[in-house]
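Students often ask why inverse folding is considered easier than folding. One informal answer: many sequences map to the same fold, so there is more than one right answer. In these notes we will look at a single instance of the problem. The structure comes first.
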């Protein structure tokens, strides 16, 4: 897996929690690598998936909630 781009945005709600939203653009070597990633990261939302010439590209979003208290 190769990460081509990564960004993190933080959002605070009224309950004192912060959502850290990670956006990553990834290339996977094969379908097995993509399957392994999704099994290890069940919270990951695949927003876009593109397969061309044997290359697997995925735009992935992961949201992590943190308690500030």
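Output (designed amino acids):
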């Amino acid at each position: 897996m190769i990460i081509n781009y990564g960004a993190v945005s933080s959002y605070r709600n009224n309950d004192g929690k912060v959502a850290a939203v990670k956006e990553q653009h990834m290339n996977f070597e094969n379908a097995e690598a993509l399957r392994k990633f999704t099994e290890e990261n069940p919270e990951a939302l695949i927003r876009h998936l593109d397969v061309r010439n044997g290359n697997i590209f995925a735009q992935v979003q992961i949201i992590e909630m943190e308690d500030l208290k």
